[in-house]
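From the pipeline queue, job 12 of 40. The input is one protein chain; the requested action is below.

Action: predict structure.
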Amino acid sequence: MRFWAFQGTIATDATTHDLDWAPLDEVFYLAAQYHVYLIPTLTDQGGNCDGDHWRDPSWYTGGYKDVFNSTTNSDGSGTTPLSYWTYLQLLVNRYRNSPALGMWEPISEPEASSCAAAYQPLNCSGHQTCPDESASAADLLSFFNAVGGEIHSLDPNHLVEAGFLSGGECGLAGQNYEAVGESPGIDVLSVHDYYGSATMGGDQWNGLAVRFDQATAIDKPIITGEAGILAGTGPTCESFSQRTADMAAKIKAQFEVGSSALLVWNWVLDPLGPCNYNTGPGDPLMGLLAGGS
């Protein structure tokens, strides 16, 4: 199970602004009790609920060692009193020996793109620009060399998984996906699949088939870290039963070309809406994932 282990989302007391490990401790404890392997994700590209700072090229080239949301900067909420770098070190040291730990994911859906101040901090997605693809690829490579290398030094017994969205994002377009993926700080590549019912969606430059071939070319395992299909009772999306069938086809097709895992987005306890990516109690997709159908 992949989950958000962001400093600002789960590891900081909102009242005292102090680091509070209790929620994460409980996640790791319960996962161990039920023999679940975890993929903790340390942050995401948008920095949502984790400093509220878009991960631009300067962040990937050293800004991850800065603090972006203490009680004295940003909005003053103090939800990320530590730098990403310091938090990473503390987190890895704390859970590296947990029997529930599967792999580390330094960041979800990285891209070394720029975002205009008018859209900062929370409205950058869809408004980002990529002034220099080659420079952005170099920035991402530098980041994964440093961050993945640090995780390996602190925890030599667990893998580092890339968290790539893989749809041609800034710094990861075309062959740059492979170039960055060759970083010694990355052990496992990833794709995220929101291509509807298509088993192997995407175009000839950045599609899933291309990514699985690139993983083979550099001899690294690859996982489908997110797979989502809109479903529900609404008129614009397919039924939950149809989604189950489509997801079964995805799993079969992607495993056949080399995927080592497929993680469905997204488990919730809320009632399933009329048209969404969520899955939860009563969804027939859960039977598929449990191996029951």
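Job complete. The two ends are 20 Å apart (CA to CA).
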